[in-house]
Specification:
The protein folds into four domains: 11-26 and 185-329, MoaB/Mog-like domain (Molybdenum Cofactor Biosythetic Enzyme, Chain A, 3-Layer(aba) Sandwich), CATH 3.40.980; 27-50 and 151-184, Molybdopterin biosynthesis moea protein, domain 2 (Alpha-Beta Complex), CATH 3.90.105; 55-146, Beta Complex (Molybdopterin biosynthesis moeA protein, domain 3), CATH 2.170.190; 340-417, Beta-clip (Beta Barrel). Helices cover 17% and strands 28% of the residues. It is built from seven helices and 29 strands. Helix 1 runs parallel beside helix 6 (311-329) and helix 4 packs across helix 5 (269-275). The protein starts with 10 loop residues before the first helix and ends in an 11-residue tail after the last strand.
Length: 422
């Protein structure tokens, strides 16, 4: 069936067709300082053991457990702050003042916290080397000791292929002696804007012209999805200009076009893509806003997303279709937002033949989350999108929903999870 007459695809079917055709990119090596949010391309092995030596887990005294009991006093003969040399010896019947992280002296087999002792200055106060300390407890062998390699052994896998690198994993890699990590390459994404009515910011306010805000918004969405955006000059509504823009854009890993994918006299993008050898997989999706959305694959496997020109439509269709693909290209295995269940704060009416994505503000309530529509839901109402932190999903076949109805909401960022006072 020709694309122009095929029925619009349901969102999940369109997403499946896209993800069936995209794969992670090749790998590169980056320093830890550039690794945040990246995905490991291969297993990473520890170059060091963690901890690198037996060390104290508390500020206190390293002792031989057999020498200590409630009321026993011994002399402090060593002072071991963090950073002390390892290999120092503790003879029987003595104690070493030791700080958290300091190497355990040879012969010691337990640490007693300073709070469970008394020095010359009183309970819980440290004794100086040469002074005596009284113990209030009988320690067990191994108390408050971190054993060498108990966290990570040298050569052990500390990061597995496909791991998303957050702060904790970066800290682990650094402590395990891995300054450079193999990661999946970030997709380079060309953004092609089309339209005679568009101008860039340097011509803001020009008569009968609109600032090309879509390009800036979509570039931000590309970056948020882990890609590297490249915004191309605006292509005028003329076949030669659009063909040239498409050919130039196809040098990158993926292409996003804005506008020109509907059925108007100036909607020339679809033809330009086909002339450039792009196989169009689908041309319409059963989604509002943003039904006229196209997806195709170039001859050498580069995904191309043709998005509508209305700003909300462009944002929502990128979110639903392009973002998951870019995340997969960057190595992510779980590319979709995790929905929240929320209750509508106000009634809404939609058309049942398409899934509708309402712009809402999420607020916690006693039952979980409340979804508050951000006002008019037109595809050009950018202010409502800007104040939203979620997309409430009204499925195909549903029209009117009363206040209090439950539905899924896709969080658009982390604002919904932010709290106030600790």
């Amino acid at each position: 069936m020709p694309l122009t007459t095929a029925p619009p695809l349901p969102v999940h079917e369109a997403q499946r067709k896209i993800l069936d055709r995209v794969r992670p990119l090749g790998s590169e090596r980056v320093p830890l300082t550039a690794a945040l949010g990246r995905v490991t391309a291969e297993d990473v092995h520890a170059a060091l053991e963690l901890p690198p030596w037996d060390n104290s887990a508390m500020d206190g005294y390293a002792v031989r457990a057999a020498d200590v009991a409630p009321g026993v006093e011994v002399e402090v003969i060593l002072d071991l702050p963090a950073g002390s040399a390892s290999g120092q010896h503790l003879p029987p019947g003595a104690a070493a003042r030791i700080m958290t992280g300091a190497p355990l002296p040879v012969g010691a087999d337990a640490v007693v916290p300073v709070e469970e002792t008394a020095g010359p200055q009183g309970e819980g106060r440290f004794a100086e080397p040469g002074e005596r300390v009284r113990f209030e407890v009988r320690p067990e062998v191994g108390d408050h000791i971190r054993r060498r390699g108990e966290d990570v052994r040298k050569g052990e896998v500390v990061l597995r292929v496909g791991d998303v690198l957050g702060p904790a994993r970066i800290a682990l890699a650094a402590t395990a002696g891995c300054p450079v990590l193999p990661v999946v390459r970030r997709p380079r994404v060309a953004i092609v804007s089309t339209g005679d009515e568009l101008v860039d910011l340097d011509r803001a306010g020009a008569p009968d012209r609109i600032v090309n805000g879509n390009a800036y918004g979509l570039a931000a969405q590309v970056a948020e999805a882990g890609g590297v955006p490249r915004v191309l000059p605006i292509a005028r509504d003329e076949p030669r200009a659009i063909r040239a823009a498409v050919r130039f854009a196809l040098e990158d890993d993926a292409v996003v076009t804005i506008g020109g994918v509907s059925v108007g006299a100036k909607d020339l993008v679809r033809e330009a893509l086909e002339e450039a050898g792009v196989e169009l997989v689908f041309w319409r999706a059963a989604v509002r806003p943003g039904g006229p959305v196209a997806f195709g694959i170039s001859g050498d496997g580069r995904p191309v997303f043709g998005l509508p020109g209305n700003p909300v439509s462009a944002h929502v269709t990128f979110e639903l279709f392009a973002r998951p693909a870019l995340l997969v290209m960057g190595g992510r295995r779980r590319p979709f937002r995790r929905p929240l269940r929320a209750t509508l704060a106000a009634p809404v009416s939609t058309r049942p033949e398409k899934a509708t994505y309402l712009r809402v503000r999420l607020e916690p309530d006693e039952n979980g989350w409340r979804a508050i529509p951000t006002g008019a839901q037109g595809s050009a109402i950018l202010s409502g999108l800007a104040s939203a932190d979620g997309l409430a999903v009204v499925p195909i076949g549903v029209s009117d929903l009363p206040a209090g109805a439950e539905l899924d909401v896709l969080p658009l960022d982390g604002r919904t999870l932010e709290g106030g006072d600790p």
